[in-house]
Amino acid sequence: MPATRSALFRGALAAAAALPLLTLAACGYGSKSQGADADQKVAAGARKIDGLDSVRIGYFGNLTHATALVGHRKGFFQKALGGTKADYATFNAGPSEIEALNAGSIDIGWIGPSPAINGYTKSDGKSLRIVGGSASGGVKLVVNPKKIGSLKGVRGKRIATPQLGNTQDVAFLNWAAQQGWKVDAQSGKGDVTVVRSDNKVTPDAFKSGAIDGAWVPEPTASKLVAEGGRVLLDESSLWPDKKFVITNIVVSQKFLKEHPKAVQAVLEASVDTNKWINANPGAAKAAANEQLAADSGKALPANVLDPAWKSIRITDDPLAGTLGAEAAHAVEAGLLQKPDLKGIYDLTLLNKVLKARGAATVSDAGLGAR
């Protein structure tokens, strides 16, 4: 790959790392997450796992992180951790969560594939492991129907993505390239103008006409629809079997090595949460929304929550084969040198949990740690 592309990727990482971080007194990153008091109490006399006082868990306030939202709200994580306290922090962007993981401010987290790939490759394979899956789907291209009437009509328009080099940004750049359009990955200028916009402000930008559409995860996509937008493309339609990884579970390698019992407990809670979500979709949707309200101070209205929830598939499978494809998309966009992802997965504990519950094990697609 030409040196200029390598420089592009370094620039993208530097820009992402420079994003302002919200202060959390306990760890210095993210925002302290709130839960239902009854669900968060450590049972009297319960035994600590590995002697740990707490396990620090990170996630985003997105419905694509439903496992973490519901597991927090319904107390699945605290129950599995026994006498070890489940502490939570929420993040707005992948790079800040990876930085918190690297700094030891969180131990385990729910995160998208691109930040996981970036974090792993930037550390030469020493920072993290993907230890489980969480969700597939939940990403859409939503446009202003008065400005864009077809996929070809996206050319020449202003389309928002959440952040330079994030999972949706890479996906949109890859899709634009498949249309034969040229876009400079770093500046976002070209046959389409890519506007990097925080998901929190994208609906207002859409409403004001500052952008013509956005390639975004849920619930932002459904918020745009509520503002008069139209779903022009569901990203799942671009993938085999309509499945692609949108959220994985990552853990610092240091924590995994030193506290495998704690990691296994979190994975047990994740598997049990996913089973409960899929068996009780209505109650799970409500629980996720309650946790979003607790974390952000505002619940999602039904006209946003209902369509957003329907587009997300909850799964224990990390869909490892699609991670390699997403990395290839980043390479083709000029945001990443061809990465060596060997060892990014360690699904040993997850498969142990799945076997114990009589469920099918999952594959690391040849990218597992040895």
From TrEMBL:
The keyword Hydrolase does not apply. Transmembrane segments: none annotated. It is found in: Cell inner membrane; Periplasm. SUPFAM superfamilies: Periplasmic binding protein-like II. Gene3D superfamilies: Periplasmic binding protein-like II (3.40.190.10). Keywords: Cell inner membrane, Cell membrane, Membrane, Signal, Transport. Residues 1-25 form the signal peptide. Belongs to the bacterial solute-binding protein SsuA/TauA family. This is ABC transporter substrate-binding protein. The lineage of its organism: Bacteria, Bacillati, Actinomycetota, Actinomycetes, Kitasatosporales.
